[in-house]
Amino acid sequence: MSTTSNEPVITSYAEAPARTVTTAGATYAYRELGPKGGIPVVFFVHLAATLDNWDPRIVDAIAKNRHVITFDQRGVGASTGKVPDTIEEAADHAYEFITALGFDKIDVFSFSMGGMIAQDLVVKHPDLVRRLVLTGTGPRGGKDMDKVVGVTYWDILRATLTRSDPKEFLFFNRNAAGKPAAKAFVKRLEERTTDRDKPIGVRAFRTQLKAIQKYGRSAPSDLSRFTQPTLIANGDNDRMVPSVLSEDLHRRIKGSELIIYPDSGHGGIFQYHDQFAPVAAAFLSN
Q1: How far, in Å, CA of 55 to CA of 244, rounded?
Q2: What is the strand order of the sheet 26-33 is part of?
Q3: Under 8 Å CB-to-CB from 187, ≥6 apart: which residues?
Q4: Is 100 within 8 Å of 27 (Cβ atoms)?
Q5: To the nearest whole number, what is the mean pLDDT of the chain?
Q6: Whether residue 41 has pLDDT greater than 50
Q7: Nearest alpha-carbon partner for 52 in 98, 23, 14
Q8: What is the reported pTM?
Q9: The dihedral of CA 171, 134, 29, 201: what is its sign?
Q10: What SS3 state is found at 12?
Q11: Where do the domains of the chain lie?
């Protein structure tokens, strides 16, 4: 499907139109931008995140040449239904959403919990995903993955005490490089001023956390069967999903590429967005 000349192509995430699609008794909220036609890049978001949590510097770089779709999982933001109890079920919902839009082949850009969902999606539907980007994430059953719960609650407390956004603590090092990068990231997330999403509810957030804990404690998936080109990226000091798990993914997925950014945490790709965005865009355009 090509975009007609009288329909301008939107390449700024701040201006991406909000849309919905209803399937299997749930309405999914999503945004799309970039030139339509060909294989879309579907973005899989992190724990507690809504459509408003994507860094526009990364989305916009990819949307320059690609049809980009971001979406809210069931029970999050403007999507209806209930947040699933397991990552595997979240992958089923993602499949439901993608097929409702009529796609049988996609590229995936994922971050954190989104990367766990993306892996489960590829395990179940290996032919659906052409190219895969896994950032700030780890494999099912990965070492210390289940500790994310304790780290998350501790950092939310620290953020509350300093009246900061929890992402400043969870995603970035609390040092001279990390603190300004954190503030700049949070500010970029506010660039969209109209038609913003509503934040996740407390119960939905706790359900997602428990799902990650179960994922961390379950038997590993066989990632040696993955055949799609895969790009893995993280910071060198990820406290949420330990950086060693990115290396673990790299070992398990044959032919994958690994980028570890120095002096950065879980949000390393956001701290180094000016370096990472063109790399990710080039990888996805191949």
Answers
A1: 24
A2: 18-23, 26-33, 68-71, 41-44, 106-111, 129-135, 230-235, 257-261
A3: none
A4: no
A5: 96
A6: yes
A7: 14
A8: 0.97
A9: negative
A10: coil
A11: 14-285
Whether 85 and 210 have beta carbons less than 8 Å apart is answered as yes
Q: Where are the alpha helices (DSSP H) in 26-140?
A: 56-63, 87-100, 113-124
CATH topology of domain 14-285: Rossmann fold (3.40.50)
The CA-based diameter of the chain, rounded to the nearest angstrom, is 52
Q: pLDDT tens digit string along 122-164?
A: 999 999 999 999 999 999 999 999 899 999 999 999 999 999 9
Buried b (16+ CB within 10 A) or exposed e, 77-95: bbbeeebbebbbbbbbbbe
| Owner of token pair 């609650």 | 153
217 — alpha (psi -120 to 50), left (phi > 0) or beta? Answer: alpha
In this structure, what token pair is assigned to residue 110? 């994922």
**Token pair of 42 as six digits:** 């579907």
pLDDT of the residue at 3: 44
Q: Which two tokens stand for residue 114?
A: 């989104």
Give the pLDDT score at 6: 64
